[in-house]
Amino acid sequence: MSDPWVALEPGADPVEHARVLRRAHETFTAAGTVPLPVRSVVAESWRRSVRAGVGPDGTADVELGDDDLGAYRAEHPLARVMPLVRELMGTFASDGEHLLAVCDAHGRLLWVEGHPATRRRAGRMNFVPGARWAESAVGTNAPGTAVAVDRPVQVFAAEHFVRRVQPWTCAAAPVHDPRTGRVLGAVDITGGDRLAHPHSLGFVQAVARAAESQLALLTPQRPADEAAELTALGRDEACVAIGGHRVRLSRRHSEIAVLLARHPEGLTGDELLCALYEDERVTPVTLRAELARLRRTLGPGRLASRPYRLTVPVESDVAVVERRLRAGAVTAAVAAYGGPLLPGSQAPSVVRLRHRLADGLRHALITGGDPDLLADWAHAPWGEDDLDVWRALAAVRPTASVRARLAALEAELVAPHVR
Fold it and tell me: Which of 61, 79, 142, 256 is the most exposed place for a label (fewest CB within 10 A)?
């Protein structure tokens, strides 16, 4: 395969390839092995699907009813670009008897539009607005997998993990926030075998880039040095938007920026050493060298010393989540939570902050018992093994897929003690 993200080579027989894939899917579900010619992106997705407790005979759950769906998508950032998405994809979908779909970052379908007969057929497998099509909920599928791997992807026939989806072919591409780079959701085109062509993948990718460009035009620009925006949740290397530019920081600089953002009054060199390094043998000289490099990265006049502090106001995604939690706005806090804080960091202060933030959110979710919010957490990469959250979710939404995942987690808990 010349492009691993494209499902079918030009000139290949789709009927024969679909037959081969069905046999491969049967082999995997029976024996757990993935034979050729299954693409690596699909094989990895199948394995993630199994780990998430998805069964090949499952179906998507509709998680947002009409009232909740209308309010949610009206506030979603992608609502602002839906006129553009319809303009670019609507005619193609209708004329080709396809569907255009847009999902959020959790794989929930917000809009599904297109040919009426195709919509009716898709409705029979719950490919409808409000349904969760995250990979961790219904296995391999283009919108869910595109969000999971943050790449444009095409899924053909029996590459879909759930059998009732295998008559379909789809292509999807993630859409990012132009300021922070965070995934907002994905645009998708779904239909029949005719979509198994490289052009459909390039098409959705172009629509996603157009949507990002439109979002950038619609987002008011701040004065260059009015403030900095720090994004550190769900990524090992933080990004800072400052001076009209977006800069990706190294891992150590990410840790320093997070700590200084939390302490606008500044930190002494000794305080930073204790916050950053478990090894007491690390010298102040090492820290000063890191700070000098960070000062050059941020630009002149933005990192002061004695004490070390940032000289411009910083709004961090960590602070947003904390502020919303304190206000009791749990839904808004979960929406702003992009994942664990600098998950690869071992800096003592960062580790403590990471655990405190996640534990605060988990407590609020479990105490509140909102099934949609619990599902958002449980189906996210950081929540797929969270036994307490899965138990809370099973108590309020005991679907077959949720019960299966909970049973698998509880079995894993017991297994080390069985001899």
Answer: 79
**CATH number of the structural domain spanning residue 164:** 3.30.450.40
**Chain mean position to CA 226:** 29
Q: Report how far residue 277's alpha carbon sits from residue 258's, in angstroms, rounded to the nearest whole number.
A: 15
Mark whether 260 and 355 lie in a shared domain: no
CA 272 to chain CA mean position, Å:
32
Burial of 414 (0-12, 13-18, 19+ CB in 10 A): exposed
Quote the CA–CA distance of 80 and 175 in Å, as a whole number: 13
Asked if 360 and 342 sit in the same domain, the reply is yes
d(CA 193, CA 204) in angstroms, rounded, equals 16
Residue at a domain's end among 186, 218, 250: 218
Contact 399, 408 (CB under 8 A): no
Rounded Cα gap, residues 141 and 143, in angstroms: 6
Q: Which residues contact 213 (CB under 8 A, 6 or more apart)?
A: 178
Q: How many domains does the chain have?
A: 3
Domain limit, last residue, from 272, 287, 316: 316
Query: Which tokens in the block code for residue 134?
Result: 């995250």
Beta strands in 13-107, from DSSP E residues, in sequence order: 99-104
Residue 176 to residue 187: CA distance in whole angstroms: 11
Q: How far apart are CA 383 and CA 375, in angstroms?
A: 9
Q: Are 256 and 276 in contact (CB under 8 A)?
A: yes
* Co-location of 107 and 209 in the same domain: yes
- Residue owning tokens 């933030």: 357
Residue type, 87: E
pLDDT in tens, 285-328: 888 899 999 999 988 888 888 788 998 889 999 999 998 888 88
List C-alpha distances in Å: 259 to 263, 296, 321.
6, 18, 16
Enter the pTM of the model: 0.62
Q: How far apart are CA 42 and CA 341, in angstroms?
A: 29
Q: 368: domain range?
A: 324-417
Please give the full DSSP string across 261-303, using - where no structure is assigned.
HH-TT-B-HHHHHHHH-S-TT--HHHHHHHHHHHHHHH-TTSE
| pLDDT of amino acid 3 | 66
* Closest CA relative to residue 51, chosen from 416, 409, 391: 409
**Residue 188 · residue 102 · CB < 8 Å:** yes
